[in-house]
């Protein structure tokens, strides 16, 4: 994916569904849950967003559409001026939550594009979890046996009584989980 995104222009990525060009800024506002939000609309005659392979929650880069034939760096460490997360995808609009302090420049209002970015944080977290699992101390039965082989876990020590809970507002199901 890194190779694909870093060797194709936005025009080529658009044909593959990894970018959307021909967008205009319909609205840009502050929200209570994020720093800013931008609503982008299709500027085409039919006013429809073309088919894309991007999903809600994915990280995208927003650029001025003037240079859609330029191959850009799509590494998160070399991101262009504006980056955000897709909050909503509709037939004719996209809503992007922008990062803290980010804003779409006014001169992009009538022409911008979005491109998928490589967001490898979940993959890195998975690798860390697997490494930690491989290196966890051996117990009887081991965590690996419980996770991979379905062995029934065993617990040692004293059970908590209702008076041992720090948060007394827990219901019985929550206490059982603890």
Automatic annotation (TrEMBL):
InterPro entries: P-loop_NTPase (IPR027417). It comes from the Eukaryota. This is Uncharacterized protein.
